[in-house]
Amino acid sequence: MNFDFGRVALVLVLAVVPIIGIALGMRAPALRSRIPILIGIFAGLIPIFSLYIPKQFLSGPTGMSPRLDQWLIILAGFALLLGIVNVVQNNSRKISRREKGWFFAAVLLIGLLVTSAFGIWGWWTKMGIGFMPDGSPTPFKWVEDRFFQPLQSTIFSLLAFFMASAAFRAFRARNTEATILLIAAGLVMAGRVPLLEFLAAPFPPLHPSASAASQFLGGLAERIMDIPNGAAQSGIIIGAALGAASMAIRVILGIERGYLGLGQGE
Amino acid sequence: MKRIFTWLLKLDRRWIFLFVLFSVATPIVFPIGLPVTTTDSTRRAFEYLESLKPGDTIWLSFDYGPSSAPENDPMAEAVMRQCFLKHVKVVVLALYPLGGLGLANTAVAKVTAEFPGLRYGEDYVNLGYKDGAAAVMRRLGEDIAGAFPTDVNGTPLSRIPMMRGVHDIRNVKLVFTAATGVIGEWWITQVHSQIGTPVVIGPTAVSAPKYYAYLNAGQLVGMLSGMKGAAEYERLLRDTYPQMARFYKSTRTFTATKGMDGQTVIHTVMIAFIILGNLAFLVTRETGRPEAAA
Amino acid sequence: MIQDALGIWIAALLTLAALSFLYKDNPFFRFAESLFAGVSLGYYVGIVLNQTLEPNLFEPMRQDFGQNWDLLVPGLLGVMLYVRYVPKIAWVSRYALSIYVTYYIGVEFTRRIHGEVLPQIGRAMLPLSRFDLPTLYSAVFVVGVFSVLIYFFFSREQNAVTRPIARLGVWFLMISFGAAFGFTVMGRVALLIGRLNFLLQAWLYPLFGITS
Asked: B126 in helix, strand or coil?
């Protein structure tokens, strides 16, 4: 058995301590929130310290940080499926009580169960979820190509229609700021596509001028994206990043506990 | 005139939807063939890949799903074609949970079928999907096998010839991420900033404006913005490798270049809508008539 | 192949069902929406099991338990996450949740500082060794970044000095949002183009024997 430092240290801090914490928490409810926060401090500081402290025990190949990265890949997989339990509970309740819309709840559950079953079949038979050895799609891939992809694409594409409706019915140059926004939008939209060439298409004598004007508009659009847009985005990125970094420190140090379902005083 | 504008403002929005549908469908049925001009950010990406040598390895990450496939699929396919033409090895992976793997599998199957001499495991490999993108990227800086012990089919990396020379992401010449959402951004702000691997991003048009800040700061080699960026890349590929034109001429296969016809029409429509809507607003406001609700 | 033709019909009909929402909310759209939600969640099960749990957890422990015994811990922590659905012992899931959240937040912290703050501030530092067009553009850029940051500083009330600078920042933001709208139009329409291309080229044209 491999007992390198990284593994052993992580198991002690992130497995043995929680076990002790759970045992203590059974008797002392006050410790049910304190020990998880303490463990969270370790888990949160390891990736930060590993960047600044080039020591073997932390960031070396057998250190704590690389091993923790591997652990959290696995944990992320479990976390991704967490919401499914909630969805199954809610929809099952809807069906059993014959609430309004129970038929659609049944459709949801059937879709979930069938797709999951195909995924589990792929895992169990080692056929996977891509293509079979003969090049044909596995059942999971077939459902993905014929149900999942068309539905996701189409539902998102509905936004194009609503944007067009909003452009006509709601976008108004009511003040200076709105006017600037609309002018920028118009210039960028016109510059990103060969709009003038399209409009001049039925008039051959205008083609060279349309092409030159289109090039100019394209250059202008790129300049708008580079400078004023780039500046604004840079400012937003700096501000948001500083805010996120300070929030990160607060969460790691246990000052913010909302993610555990706890209030400030708990 | 005022009556016309008032009538327009009260028009049921479903007529607007129908007009949009016809505007987009018409160039698909009757292709126009409008020209595609290239921008600096796309040219830089193309030229960087052109500068790579046979045997170099790039990382092609499918960080998008069906919600942006018409924009990102053409980018990924064009980059793969360029790499295979130049005998650059391609490591394919997906970090986007909602559909990235399926699109990666489909794109790899489609493009590799166009190059019969390619050998899996020697010229390209598909590592599949992995959860926890941020943790994966951290681990890639140490050793790839720690994050991806096997390829998409379950073959250990130690048994894949081209992966023997690629221990971690520092051995890779470029990461190309076709992305929607934050995962593409993480390649720039985590992998490039902490490890130094060059990154080219192909974001969807919705998130592209943000990436100009990274482009300006030198954190990106180049960028392909949305369907326009993909069409630009296809144009550069066709101009440099004329034999590639055959993949972009068929009217059945969807390409970004063909999609730009529809984009041009709808942009014209949108600008017309904005101008018309504001004109109607001005005219009806002058007469004191209430404006229709959106 | 039959399953190919059947698959195309299924995809086409589901596409039309989703598009029917544009007319009005109707049972076909709700059917498609519910099916989408269910299939998406089932999709997660398939990819997590096949692409993460099997190669990163089950297979390493099967192949060489001695080297990978510690992977039991993330496996158990992962199961512990689901204990939150058992009301009496839901508090136990806090251990797994705190490790998961704080780790990714720690990674986020380093990413934000090294990948966002420092490079962006570096870009906003303007060398004035030359006075040419690129320097002018950079000056406009720096003014833009500075004014936007002033606008976003909400900790103190703005005064006669900062208010006009913040207003300038708002104008930069409006240009950015206008540009973003232009790009968003392109992004959303691209999806529509993709779907209509599928309906026409992959479904209707073969149905009517049209070759293009």
From this structure: strand
Q: How far apart are CA C77 and CA B98, in angstroms?
A: 24
Distance from CA of B129 to the nearest CA of C (A): 6
DSSP B29-42: HS---------HHH
C-alpha to C-alpha distance for B191 and B185, rounded to whole angstroms: 10
B22/B66 same-domain check: no
Q: Which of A41, A162, A189, A238 to mutate to test the interface with C (most CBs of C within 10 A)?
A: A238
DSSP class of residue B292 equals P
Q: How far apart are CA A54 and CA A51, in angstroms?
A: 7
CB C110 within 8 A of CB A48: yes
Give the residue from A80, A111, A129 where a domain finishes. A80
- Domain of residue B282 covers 2-31+258-286
Interface contact C121-A15, CB threshold 8 A: no
Both structure tokens of C110 = 């380093």
Residue pair B104/B92 in contact (Cβ under 8 Å)? The answer is yes
Yes or no: say if B127 and B151 are a contact pair by the CB < 8 Å rule: yes
Contact indicator for A138, A130 with CB cutoff of 8 Å: yes
- The token pair at A144 is 């993905």
Q: Is residue B280 a part of any domain in this protein?
A: yes
Are B100 and B198 in a shared domain? yes
Q: pTM for the complete prediction?
A: 0.93
ipTM over 0.85: yes
Q: List per-block mean pLDDT (blocks of 10 residues) for chain B, which spans 294 residues.
A: 81 90 92 91 97 96 95 97 97 96 94 94 96 95 94 94 91 96 93 95 95 94 96 96 83 84 94 90 69 46
DSSP string, A35-84: HHHHHHHHHHHHHHHHHH---HHHHSTTSHHHHHHHHHHHHHHHHHTHHH
Contact B294 A51 (CB under 8 A): no
- Full domain range(s) for residue A219: 171-253
Contact assignment for A198 to B265 by CB distance below 8 Å: yes
